[in-house]
Each structure stands twice: as C-alpha cells, then as structure tokens.
Task: inverse folding
C-alpha cells in the first residue's frame, strides 16, 4: 500500500480460514507465516514474495507450531515458533485460556535458502516478539501459564552475538512485539500497556 493509502496491491492471496501469521519486510521481499490449517499450532509455512508482487516461495516449514514473530537481519530470516497450546475452559465470564506446552523455538534461515534452518533456542513457552541487531537476538517469553493471564513476570531473552546460549535480560508481563530502536531494543508489554527499552545493545 502506498503511504497515502491510495493504492493497495495484493502480494499473495490468502487461503480460506487461515489468517496470515506475522510479517516482515526487507529491501527486496516481504515475509510472512501461512498456517497449514485454521487450528493454531498445527503447522505453518514461512513464505516470501518480492515486494513488487512476484510469486510466493517457501522459506521454511514448521511441522508443529506457528509463526508468532518474524524479522530479517544480516542475511537471515529469524522466526519465533509459538509451539502448541492446550485450552483450559473457564467458568462464568472468563474466556478460555491457552496454555503453552513449552515446545516453541527460535530459528533462522539464510535469505538465499542456501542451507537448512538453524535452531537457536528450543523448549520455549509462547515466544513473543523478536528483534535482531549487531548485539544479538532478542525475544520475550510468554511463560508456561495462561497466555493473557500471567500471575508473575516472564523473562526477556537474548542470545548475544557469538554466544550459543541464551540469557535473561529483564522481565515483562507479556512481550507481544519487539524492535531495535536507538541503540537499544524496545518491546511492548501487552498486559500493562507499557513500552520498555533495554539499553545494552548495539555499541
């Protein structure tokens, strides 16, 4: 869509009953998650198409889970796989809660698809948000409990550039979105409505 809203171009048609999961754009392509079915967690395909409306192609496939966040950096597509959930019925006016089964992951794929996906972190419950800069890969954990009813804060994770293990850099009720910003990483806490910033990022 043009900035003035005057022109909308369909880059890839949507499949029936399967809404698109997450989206990212770089200088050449747009990337998104296309679920295999209407059931969340039943599998999803990471797709890409050129921003001028070229044919859609497959970047990677998630056998179990769904694309919860996606971004590009340094020649790679980074994906947060939300894993699978189980529903817990509630009584009265309370909605059903979706509990994580703890099998989400963070992985990356070369933009040129020259090699298979590489898993950076596994056994992640509800990984929300995803940001990458020269200092590392960042994401928020949704926690093992109900998606929107956390009783305690959950961690924000980082794998520093050159490292192979993740570390916790902060806590948040629900990091729903994340982005590099002004030599930092900023994220939205969807439960409290706050925007937070972590400063120890790009030198």
Result:
């Amino acid at each position: 869509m043009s900035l003035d809203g005057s022109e909308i171009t369909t880059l890839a048609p949507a499949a029936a009953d399967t809404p698109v999961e997450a989206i990212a754009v770089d200088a050449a392509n747009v990337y998104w998650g296309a679920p295999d079915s209407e059931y969340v967690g039943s599998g999803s395909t990471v797709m890409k198409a050129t921003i001028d409306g070229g044919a859609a192609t497959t970047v990677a496939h998630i056998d179990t889970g769904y694309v919860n966040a996606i971004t590009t950096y340094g020649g790679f597509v980074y994906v947060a796989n939300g894993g699978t959930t189980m529903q817990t019925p509630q009584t009265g006016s309370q909605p059903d809660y979706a509990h994580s089964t703890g099998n989400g992951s963070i992985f990356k794929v070369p933009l040129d698809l020259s090699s298979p996906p590489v898993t950076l972190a596994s056994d992640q419950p509800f990984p929300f948000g995803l940001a990458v800069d020269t200092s590392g890969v960042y994401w928020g954990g949704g926690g093992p409990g109900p998606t929107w009813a956390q009783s305690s804060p959950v961690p924000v994770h980082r794998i520093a550039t050159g490292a192979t293990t993740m570390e916790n850099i902060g806590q948040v009720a629900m990091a729903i979105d994340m982005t590099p910003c002004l030599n930092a990483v900023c994220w939205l806490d969807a439960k409290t409505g706050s925007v937070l910033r972590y400063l120890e990022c790009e030198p």
User: Anything to note?
Assistant: The chain is about 0% helix and 50% strand. Confidence is low (pLDDT under 50) at residues 144-150. Residues 24 and 31 are 5 Å apart (CA to CA).
